[in-house]
Amino acid sequence: MSHFSIAEARALAVGPEVDLAAIDPASTPGISGSSKDIEKATAKIEDEVADLQELLYANKRAGNDPGNVLIVLQGMDTSGKGGAVKHTLAGLDPQGIHIASFGVPTEEEKSHDFLWRVEKALPEAGVVGIFDRSHYEDVLVHRVHQLSSAEEIERRYQAIVDFEQRLVESGTRIIKVMLHISKEFQKENLIERLENPEKHWKYNPGDVNERQLWDDYQTAYEIAIQRTTTDQAPWYVVPSDNKPYARMVVKYLLLDALRSMDLHWPEADFDVAAELERVRNS
Ligand code: AMP
Ligand code: MG
Question: pTM for the full model?
Answer without folding.
Answer: 0.97
